[in-house]
UniProtKB/TrEMBL annotation:
One Pfam assignment: FUR
Source organism: Nonomuraea jiangxiensis
Gene3D superfamilies for this protein: 3.30.1490.190, Winged helix-like DNA-binding domain superfamily/Winged helix DNA-binding domain
Cofactor needs: Zn(2+)
Cofactor, how bound (note): Binds 1 zinc ion per subunit.
Residues annotated as binding Zn(2+): 92, 95, 132, 135
Localisation: Cytoplasm
Keyword annotations of the record: Cytoplasm, DNA-binding, Iron, Metal-binding, Repressor, Transcription, Transcription regulation, Zinc
This protein's record includes keyword Repressor: yes
Protein name: Fur family transcriptional regulator, ferric uptake regulator
Keyword Transcription regulation in record: yes
Gene Ontology annotations for the cellular component aspect, listed alphabetically: cytoplasm
Family statement drawn from the similarity comment of this UniProt entry: Belongs to the Fur family.
Length: 142
């Protein structure tokens, strides 16, 4: 499995390093995690990695397109390794839980603006806001 990550890194001309491999592994197993969670997951693997090193890895992987950074309004940035399929997110207003929603049109930009103002639009960022099943259940129980 590690060799898959090595191939991914090489494909975008990034050097293969243990922190980069550890971050990719963490994001494969945990979708939509914030930076602190990524640091904790990486440290379980590589205890001596610094916060800064993990920040740098996330920045490099995001820039290279191996990792996607999502930042719902009012929430901390989360990271995921499901990239390239233009999927959207549904966010719980109560607890901040995030889940994937497949792209409605199947390809970017997904939504076509009624008037693009002359811009060439390549992406529509869609966030569905609502209440997750756990929070709905909690509300009924109360
Ligand atoms: Zn919730
Ligand atoms: Zn996602």
């Amino acid at each position: 499995m590690a060799s898959d990550f090595e191939a991914q890194l090489r494909a975008v001309s990034l050097r293969v390093t243990r922190p980069r491999l550890a971050v990719l592994a963490a994001l494969r197993d945990h979708a939509h995690v914030d930076t602190d969670t990524v640091i904790a997951l990486v440290r379980a693997e590589l205890p001596r990695v610094s916060h800064q090193a993990v920040y740098d890895v996330l920045r490099a992987l995001t820039k290279a397109g191996l990792v996607r950074r999502i930042e719902p309004a009012g929430a901390t940035a989360r990271y995921e390794s499901r990239v390239g399929d233009n999927h959207h997110h549904v966010v719980c207003r109560s607890c901040g839980a995030i889940a994937d929603v497949d792209c409605a049109a199947g390809h970017a930009p997904c939504l076509t603006p009624s008037d693009d103002q002359g811009f060439t639009v390549d992406e529509a960022e869609v966030v569905y806001w609502g209440t997750c099943p756990d929070c709905v259940t909690g509300r009924i129980a109360r």
